[in-house]
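User: Is it possible to get a 3D structure for a protein together with its bound compound? The compound here is magnesium ion. I've pasted both below.
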Amino acid sequence: MSEYLLEIQNVSKLFSGLVAIDNLSMKVKKGQIYGIIGPNGAGKTTLFNCITGIYTPEIGQILWKGKDIKGISPYKIAGLGILRTFQTIRLFSEMSVAENIMSGRHIKSKQRWYNGIIPTPAYFKDEKYQWTKVGELMEFFNLSLYATTPAGDLSYGIQRRIEMARALAAEPELLILDEPAAGLNENETIELTEMIRKIQAMGVTIMMIEHDMEMVMSLSEYITVINFGAKISEGVPSFVQADPKVVEAYIGSDEEDEDA
Amino acid sequence: MMNKTGLIALLLLGFAGLYPLFVDSAWLAVGTTFLVFACVAFSQDIILGRAGVFHMGHAMFFGLGAYTTAILNVQFGWAILATWIPSVVIPMACAFALVAPIIHLRGDYLLVATIGFNIIFIQILENDVFGLTGGPNGLFGIDVVHVFGYDFSSQIHMYYMAFILLGITLFIMRSLDRSKFGRAMFYIHKDDIAAQSMGISLRYYKLYAFILGAGIAGAAGSMFSVQYSAVSPEAFNVTQSIMFFTIVLVGGSASLPGVLIGTFVMFVLPEVFREFETARYLVFGVAMILTMILRPRGIWPVKFGNIPSFLKKGAK
Ligand SMILES: Nc1ncnc2c1ncn2[C@@H]1O[C@H](COP(=O)(O)OP(=O)(O)OP(=O)(O)O)[C@@H](O)[C@H]1O
Ligand SMILES: [Mg+2]
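Assistant: Yes, that's possible. Here is the predicted structure of the complex:
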């Protein structure tokens, strides 16, 4: 097996004439925190959507543990252990926080098809176990207080935590975070940074898009910089930060909103 | 812990259990049909209210169950009891065969396709295909249930059989809501992209909803055909499908009390206002429009947050 968990090989994604991703390659090692940065509209989210099966790239390969997963449907990708959060939060907003996190336990649940009609002893055991796991996650993410509150009624920062808890509930091998710090205040960002470190310590590999430079530079072990769909730089944070091409891309793009 | 909803449920159960003792035969028949329609409405609610699939052909599955019992009994001489399993399984098989090819369609397209199925179904019944369905007049002379030489032939028997059927339906609804299957349907309904990203197959759970819904509707159809000892196409046309669809939305999608209220409002109230003849349907139309404007989530909307009590302890 390859030493890399995920390999993106010469991937291109087109949207009716627009090249959203342009011949992009990158390699993610197991256990790493991998940062992806770039100006608005660079194609970062599109890349995540290609990895998670929401889009199928026209060209290239996406290798998961050496096997091509390009074009596989999103629910099967999750089944492989690749879970994600969304840049624009996508919670089941009318449902309670606990029920939201429970969705992450779906693929871990051992309930059989007839348990939707009739409960069995195995069902009761499974159901209790899954809810216990949900309880543990709510504790870890400081959400126990909101167990019964509809997710949509909570603040942005809390909603971001719920999304992470939900993804983590599925016990992913690779956790993909799309701008986890967006909309968070300074304190929340510090908490989030701690949280991400703890998740890494559990053995979860993390890929993260982030505009908060301080956070992404301190967390990431390796970073790829994208502009107009193409890679313009890659390396350890200190290298990327000093790369004139990166500085130019950011100045050239009026990227003022990052410290908002 | 006995909360308000639990108390209301218990009172309702008591009332429904004793209802036949206080009413004349016309009202008893209304009661029985209410119970049967409530089963159908719940089965529609699995597909529409839970999985969130705009399905407007549910009367077809109801009719498939009714005609299965009617045909097997009248044309082939099967005992009613023996027709029960086929009257559930045939609608389920049809649901799978018909819906699987169109399940990926987006809401509005799927809605039109399900109406199409219902129309074709009525055409088949009216044209007496294979000489089995009895054409526009349908089939009559359907037998009653015999067990150990005892005939369940009175209207009171019909009522209590429907009562048990509704009990079974409610048991299934409850099991569904508390299993990963019911929850998966809600996740798909609320945000299908997020649901898929959590590993939930849209196709599997939507089909699951359809097949389960068709089975319950089929059982209700079988009961319906025995209650009236006759079946005819117009009881299963698109207008009926629209009624089941409306019951769910007016009462409250995915809400057990909501669907019961919906069935009451859409089916029993018209019986109460019978003397006003067709004018009563005017009241209805207005009631439907007003509910959607004033209570878009239904008269008794669903409440989420159905989680084990040990998780509620830390919650505010
Ligand atoms: N479904 C789509 N159809 C057409 N164009 C799209 C689609 N999704 C994204 N795009 C385009 O692809 C380009 C890349 O978008 P993407 O969302 O990946 O950027 P991003 O790097 O995530 O930006 P941001 O930092 O603002 O989130 C943009 O020009 C966008 O308009
Ligand atoms: Mg983005």
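Chain A has nine helices and ten strands. Chain A touches chain B through 52 residues (CB under 8 Å).
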